[in-house]
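Hi R.,

Here's the chain you asked about this morning:
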Amino acid sequence: GDFNGTRGKFWPDDNRIIETMRRVNPSFSSEPTAAELGPLLKWIMGGTPTGSTTKTYPWSNTAAKRFMHFKPNVGEEWFLSNVGVNSATMSAQVGGALALALALVGMTYDSTRTNFPSLSYDQTLQPFILSHLVWTVGGVARQVSDISFTIDGGIDTERFLNSLTLTDVLRKGAKWSVSFAVPSGDNASQFWSSGVAGSAATAVFTNPTTSAVLTLDFPKLKFPGNSPGFSPGDEGMIRCNAIPTSTAGGEPVTISLNPGS
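And here is the predicted structure, written out as tokens:
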């Protein structure tokens, strides 16, 4: 902060520039395999996974916090403490893999210098891609050019209570959103007719090589109306921005992964 105040100075004084908040907002992106996605889902959702081979990842109102160690190929290593997931987006488009992007919130940088662990990777595993997807809305399988699923974890990023750093990583609320594009001629009006009442939907990604399966089950999606877009020489597409809602006190989405971890 610049606390030059009423000192009558044109330029701020060096000794009155004071650090007031130390924000820790890293980001992470990946195209994970099922083996890599499992631990990330556990971190994102916060609850304790259930099941054996097929794991289900429940939501927790308490954010899961992790110690993070970034080690790039070149440059400085970063050590971050008490890091939670503020938002997570899984997305795929034509010709691309299912990508995961995380916006993170941490409490502080950590000066502890620990040795980076030795990691091994199963090179036979693969990520999911868009063509692995079966997207079913209202009992009808839909073809899409892209799709994304976003959870906003609602972490309070301004909780600097008598502190230069966040005093905790707390959720204030959460919401899901789903976005996808369908050809405008594929009975798109059916989405709007169920806009208020909502419609069940399920996304199932199945990798035929590894047999891994990722499922997102939405009991109720609400569809606000939207107009199609027509680019010159291209097929008309409708962008559907849907709102998953909870029913009977349940969660707005159930996520499962086989094999899970």
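One quick note: The radius of gyration is 22 Å.

Cheers,
M.
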